[in-house]
Every structure is written in structure tokens, then in C-alpha cells.
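re: ur question from the group chat, yeah i did fold both. here u go
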Amino acid sequence: MTQITLHDKVFSKYISSGEILDAVKNIAECINNDIKNEELPVFLSILNGSFMFTSDLMKYINFDCLLSFIKLSSYDGLSSKGEIKELIGLNFDLTGKTVVILEDIIDTGVTVEHLVGVISKYKPKQLKIATMLFKPEAYAKDIKLDYTGILVPNEFIVGYGLDYNGLGRNYPDIYKLVK
């Protein structure tokens, strides 16, 4: 599909599922090299958006690990609300663990900054951040991103876990808003 319509907006195909999978494999290779010797690292997937990225990434992680989910929300429609609501919390202690945050997209950095603050209270051994998509033009924080899949412009995109008011997460490709 070259175009999709979600609610009242039209989106055109921007990044293919093949390009996405290549980026996922590259991130997995880096993580495998960096933390393969850590004792049961914890992958912390941010729902809802990162479910596809997490699922694909885990297929290429070649060591034993733990996986947990947290649900945060900062978007309403096409723009960030600027506030974070923690909807589902952590389900086990992260003290002394290597933690890898898995994000679908990082734009302003508000969500990841909040999450780093929450996780830091658990005193992890180390904290790493992996994001499938990154909008460097929108990023306004000083938090280091350890693993980045694809750089994207500061445009609204959907697909591969990303949505517009609940629709579009199921598409394997990524689409950008047609202006």
C-alpha cells in the first residue's frame, strides 16, 4: 500500500518493512556485542508503540534476558501533551540490573527523560536506551541514546506500532502524514 487513510488524515508510505527489519537487526547486533556477558539484563518495552519493535528485536537477541513492559502516554492526536501519565508500572525490582529501555520513537525526549528518572530510583547497574526511530530535530534533552535504528524528520508518522488516535499500529511499514 502506498497510501492509507486513518480517521481524517492521509498518510503515504515512507519506510518499508524491509528497511525497518534491517535496522532492528543492526540494533540487536550492537546490543548482543555490548551486554551479552551481563547477568540477566532486563529489556523494558514501552507500550503501546514499541510492541512491534520489541517483538522483532527479541528474535535476534542471543542471550538469556528478562522482558517487562511499562505503559506511558504523552500523545493526544498529532501532538505531544507534554505530560507523562504512567499507566502500567514495573513488575519487578531493577536494582543492580542492566536495563535496556525499548522505545518505538524518540522525538522531544520527554517520555524517555521521565522513564530514566523512574528507573534511576531503582539503582540499576547500567541503563541503556534503544529506539527504533529518532527525530533529532525535535530532541530537546541531554540523555544519551545508545542504540538508534532510523533517523526521521520531525514529521508525524504511523505504522509499525505508531498510531494516529488508535489507528495504524498494525501496518508493517511506516507512513508519513501527507500535507
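okk and heres the other one u asked abt
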Amino acid sequence: MTIEVDLAAPLRTADLRAAAGPVTVVIGAPVRDRVATGRAFLSKALGDDRAIYGATTGFGALVGYAGRPDQRDQADNTLAHLGAGQGPDLAPDVVRATLLVRAWSLAQGASGVSPHVLDALAAALGTTFTPAMPRLGSVGASGDLIPLGAAAQALRGRGHAYVDGERMPAAAALDRAGLEPLPLDGRDALALVNGTSLTTAALALALDRVRTSHRVVQALSCLLADLLGCDPQFLDASLLAAYGHRGAIEVGATMRSISAGLTGTGTRPLQEPYSIRCSPQLLGAAEDALRYVDGVVAADLGGVSDNPLFFPAGDKVVHGGNFFGQPAAFAADVLSMVVAQVGNLAERQLDLLVDPVRNGGLPPMLAAGPGQQHGLQGVQLASTALIAEIRRDSVPASLQSLPTNLHNQDVIPLGTQAALRALDQAELLRLITGSLGLGLRQAVHVGARRPTAAGCDRTLRALEEIPPVDPDRPLDADVRTAAAILEKLDKSLISGSYGDRRDA
């Protein structure tokens, strides 16, 4: 069943996820009316000989020069010089989410765009057509100019695109998808590229994936404590209330719910290592940070990123900087820090689990026959490499501003790079959680007790879909399977106080 996305309604991350496949984009009468009104006002403003960036002028540092007098030629003037992107193509789900974000922004009627541009975006999203969009080239300052320029060109039948996952010349892709090349004038072309839609889409998808992993690590932390027979007092409600941080209080409540019925063995140390004892404080701080990113994503999904903006009611054409992706840059850097610390926690918990000195006497590396077998040794090595990769790449992108474009863009946010980096890291975090889940499944096979808490038992039973490691075998696919199992389980196990944010 094809999912509908109504451009008159607030845009949600769930809509962006759905856009990975064909979606029905609804353009109702109110949207059409405001877009048509904005377009008519643009025509009036041009007739009044007002100076309008991109319609009557050159671009960027060349704004002081006149543009091409024919508006159809002005579209080429806009897009041709942006064909400078490099690197691999972005993932199709990210590109299609970007098109949806751009369509929603244009649908607000403040961009002076032709109504047929919105129709073309909706038609493309109703198929598997996906522009080939280069990863490298955007500084996120005047919007995502270069990658969005590639998308606009593909919609015109230039460059390359994908249909049903196959890369081909864009003209052939349009034909195969049953789409017509999109005619553009100068304002239409600029409106398609002069916004932070790629940055917003990548950040929203990254946040969605990190939130899932954040909830999964809560469940795995509880399962670890249960298998080892830890005293659950580190989750005590009074303790966390005294701590005073909202995130820790909420995470603690969720973890107490999962751990309800956990009975300690009485043989563990009075105080557990920090990777267990301080998990609600660490994951709670992550929740507080994620809540900040939630707000930035909601504002970006609900805002108009373009320049200039047109306000017919006030007879105003306003030139400014609503294409400057600084909020997303800061938020993506915060998200990267969250990934690094949550991933570090999960990797340290796996390290504890495979260590016979700290795991209650389970065999080293959870090997069923140490020496004859090696259990989780390879997985633990790979997890160390994954967290090192995350940490190495966590230098804030938003601090790297440098002038470009003849100092027209003398400060830049680099939000696109920050958001795409966070999206990459979210996938690595997912693999680390899968590695920990696999280790917890193996621990029971080599002698750990069964969980005493019903919530922890549900997690383990789901993971027991994976056969124990006995004898050794390659475990790369098992790690990915464990990650997928935990994501599926998350929907039913850890909805709790965070469930209402899943589709924010």
C-alpha cells in the first residue's frame, strides 16, 4: 500500500522514511492557492522592475552583475556552474527524503516557485526515480547548492539518475519512470537549490536511527545487569530523582520497567563498573542532548529555507539568510557526540562481558571451548575498530568555518557534512549494538543464568533466534541480524516515555 504525504500537514521523520519508496504526495487546494499566489506576486514584482536575486541578477559573489534576460536561459545560468560535485552518489533513501523536504518547503508559497515544479517533485516521488546526487560539494551556507543542483538537473533530464536501483542517464530514467523533463525558469531553478533540504533530511534520518540505538542500548544494559546478577539499585528512582536531570530520570524509569523482577545474585561487588552503574546517567544525558536535536529537526522540517522569500500580503520581497544551516550543523555535531559516547558504552559493556575477571567467571571471549574455539573474539576486535572510527570522525564540523565565494560566504556552517557524518556514524552504532546483543545471547549459552526480569527475558528470547557460536563461524552476518532483531523489538519493548517522539 502506497503511503500518502500531505504537503498541507506538518512534515514528519516518518514521512521521510516512507519516501525511500514510492509515496503519494498530496497537493491540496490550499497548497496550490498559496503557491499560485506567491508565483503571481513574483511576476508582479518583476514587472515593477524590482531587483530580485537570481531572477534579475547573477549568483553568489556575482550578484552585482545582471543575469540573463530570458528566464529560461537564467535556469541554465543557475544550474550549470553547480555541476561541480564529487565523491560517491548519496544513498537513494537520503536523496528521496531530500526531495520531499524540498517539496514541503516550496509548498509554503514563500519561494515564488511555479506550481508545476511542485507537481514534478510529487510525480517523481510517486515512482522509484532518484537523482544521482554527489556527496561532496555542499558547505550548507547558501543551502545545499551543488547536490540540489544535481537533483534539479536530473529532473530536467540532465546528468544521471536511478530507477528501480539502476543508474542511467537522467533522460532515460525519466522516460522509464514515465516522467516528463521539468521546464524551469531562473526563479524555479534557484528555489530548487537554495535551501538546506539535504542537510535537514540527513539530520532527521540520523536522529531517527540514533534514537532507536539509544533505546536498544537501554534494553541491552538491563539484560547485561540481569545475566550477571547485578543489584538493580543503580536504577533506584530516589537516587535518580536526587541527580536532578530529566533525561536520567526518564531513562531510569524505562530501564526499571524493563528490569522489573531482576534479582541480584548477591555475589557481585557492592558497586558495579561504571559501564553498568552509571548507564542511566550516561544514557540520560544522551536523552537530554537528543531532545535538543529533536527540536532542531522539528524546526527545520517546519521551516522555509530559501532566498529571497516572497510575502504577497505585505508586498515584500525579502533577501536574507534562511538558507544558512547553522542550527542543523550544531545539532548534527551534538548527535555525533551522543553516538560516540553511547557507542563507547556499548563497546565497554561487550568488553566487560567477554572478560572472565569481570563477567562472573564466564569463559574468556565467551568461547564454548577456549583455545579450541574463540567465541566473540573477532566481534570484540571489530567493535573496538568501529568505536575508534566513530571517535576519530567526531571532530565538530561546525567549527571548521572558512571563507569562500569571494568572501560572499565569509562564514559557513558546514551542516551538510555534519549531518551526513552523523548518518554514517548512526550505522556504525547500530553494528556495535548488534555486537553487544550477540555477546549477550552467547553468554547464556556458555553459562550465564537466564534473566530473572520478564523484560530482559523478552530481549534474550528474541536474540535466541540466532544460533549459539559453537563451533566458531564467521559472525559478520550475525551481528547485522542481531541489530535488526533489536530494532524490531524496540517498537514493542521500549516505547515508554520516548514512543511519542519516534515519528516527530
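fwiw on the second one: The domain at 3-195 is CATH 1.10.275.10 (Fumarase C; Chain B, domain 1). DSSP finds 18 helices and nine strands in the chain. idk if thats what u expected
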